[in-house]
Amino acid sequence: MICLLLSLFAHIYQPGWTGANERTFLAVKPDGVQRKLVGEIVRRFEKRGFKLVGLKLVKASEDVLREHYWDLRNKPFFSRLISYMSSGPVVAMVWQGLDVVKTARKMLGETNPADSLPGTIRGDFCVEVGKNVIHGSDSMESAMKEISLWFGQNELHRWESCSTSWIY
């Protein structure tokens, strides 16, 4: 009965961007997909209690990647980054939960894997900056921009998990 009520509430209530409805964008990069780390990464976010509201395997176009990494366009590594990110499939995801942007960044570890603690994704699975397995939004603003770049509104799902009351 409670699950039915929560499910009904999820369809009526339009999630915002605060509290337990905060969303972030994550992308398992081509090296993470090739190394078969997608399941482990999804598992970590599910076990943390976050809710997956969007997921797809894509071959990112150079146009999307140039827009995504626009802030880095003047860096000397920009063209190598675009080439690397378009070299294979990417798993794009949207996760939802309380403080998910900040928490996801901590779970990812530092951009440079050498600075990442064991227990973080990059600390456990990465060696060099150029192949650091995963991207995560660094702020609410970038999360909103990245989600709208990678996902259409019809690709994001509103649903309520029966475990919500055990997490919040």
From TrEMBL:
Residues that bind ATP: K29, F77, R105, T111, R122, N132
Domain Nucleoside diphosphate kinase-like residues, every copy: 21-158
Compartment list: Cell projection, Lamellipodium; Cell projection, Ruffle; Cytoplasm; Nucleus
EC number: 2.7.4.6
Enzyme superclass (EC): transferase
Single GO molecular function: ATP binding
Pfam families listed in its UniProt record: NDK
Predominant place of localization: other
Keyword Metal-binding recorded: yes
Record keywords: ATP-binding, Cell cycle, Cell projection, Cytoplasm, Kinase, Magnesium, Metal-binding, Nucleotide-binding, Nucleus, Signal, Transferase
Record's GO cellular component terms: cytoplasm; lamellipodium; nucleus; ruffle
Catalytic center residues: H135
Reaction(s) catalysed by this chain's protein: a 2'-deoxyribonucleoside 5'-diphosphate + ATP = a 2'-deoxyribonucleoside 5'-triphosphate + ADP; a ribonucleoside 5'-diphosphate + ATP = a ribonucleoside 5'-triphosphate + ADP
Cofactor(s) the protein needs: Mg(2+)
CDD domains for the chain: NDPk_I
GO biological process: one example: GTP biosynthetic process
Record's signal peptide: 1-18
Main function: Major role in the synthesis of nucleoside triphosphates other than ATP.
Family: Belongs to the NDK family.
NCBIfam families, sorted: PRK00668.1
Descriptive protein name: Nucleoside diphosphate kinase
Biological source species: Nothobranchius furzeri (Turquoise killifish)
Lineage, uppermost ranks: Eukaryota, Metazoa, Chordata, Craniata, Vertebrata
